[in-house]
Amino acid sequence: LIVTGEKLWERFLPKYLEEIGASVLIIGSLGFLQNLLGAVWALQGGLLSDRLGEQRAFRYFSWMAVAGYALAIVFPHWIAVFAGMLFFSAWSTVSLPGSMALIVRSVGRGKAAMGISMHSFIRRLPMAAGPLLGSLLIGAFGMAAGIRWAFGISALLCIGGLFLLKNFPGKSPQYTYMPLLTIWRRMDGRLKNLLFSDILIRFCEQIPYVFVVIWCLNEVKISAAQFGLLTAVEMAVAAFIYLPVARFSDRMERKPFVVLTFLFFTLFPVVLYFSSSFTMLLFAFTVRGLKEFGEPTRKAMILDLAIEDAQARTVGVYYFIRDFIVAFAAFFGGWLWLVSPTLNLWTAAGFGLVGTVVFAVFGKGVAR
Fold first, then answer.
1. 261-271: pLDDT as tens digits
2. In whole angstroms, what is the distance from residue 43 CA to residue 20 CA?
3. What is the C-alpha separation between 130 and 124, in angstroms, rounded?
């Protein structure tokens, strides 16, 4: 329910900001803020999930999202949207460490990739439906009013999710305080290798991320409904490959799956650059969906290598470091877009190529 609400507006948010008067640099700052908040909330999510248990932590996160949506609805200004994002952008990242720890506790490390894949598969259903529904709201009410309607529906879905959490089988585990520096020192060297490569790959993703919708609507000149369909295609492709890949990933060395995933990240900005029609964009977004090929495998690697008595916190520290650094890539992307959209897309591809090569040569996997 909560992810459906998020996806009603998320992909259209850069265009919404443009509609209400935000400049290119402010839109670029959106990506910076999203990644910076992702870093902060991932760290807090790991700490709170380990300390309070998943149920209580998830309830706090849901109420925060409702408050953020209310702020963005009442004040239709980009400053209010940014302020609201302090709260409503939290759910996906703040719940991630607790969700991953809960999954591996439920199914065991030997089935971690399958468990994460099933979780990701279920999430992709609302992630595919959300943009389609969001495009209908925009078609009915216009960009500005349609997004505000989407914010309102998102708040209601968060409240609906809160009722389901009443019967959530979360528990408060035994919590032992551990300084963040100690967590970093205890992190497996293989996990640090993966983190370094992941940072480079996320530069590839985030440099053009907030401008993809603007490229599609302004440069290729498709409609919001067509963009919603492209997003649905992306999510459908991702969902289709999750479970078969996870079945092999839990039985084999994980590294090749992650290398292939990094390659698809690298290819997307290249294919997007050469897309001048809706048909070509369908191919580009198919490639974008294929970048999820080994994402559950990558997350399973993180859990395989996480500190046994601090899994959620290990995940939180990993994402905090990654997203804090990558936040600056999104801001850098805004500057590159001002210079040239072409420079933006090819710089992103360059980071992806370096990240892929680095992990292929120096990264170490986890044998099954």
1. 999 999 999 99
2. 32
3. 10
